[in-house]
Amino acid sequence: YVEVFDHTLTYHTTSDTFSSTSFRSLGKLEKELHSTHFARCHSGYLVNLAFVSGYEKSEVFLDEHTSLPLSRIYSKSFLDQLLAYWRNTAI
Question: Can you give the pTM of this predicted structure?
């Protein structure tokens, strides 16, 4: 997932975490990743849908140690994208 804080993007991968050295908006990154499996769950987070294990009303779970907030503003769009992703990747 990618998070923004103080205009700095921080990328969280399965093996590492690193921050961008240039100031870039999460909105621009979201547009660039539009055709991939990233979706916005909160004003400060973009999530790779392949790593979402579940969700509740106000929370997205990535694993047993990591959860991110799910805001009311983004919840419908995020859940629509997540459910479509799960439908298209179901075995």
Answer: 0.87
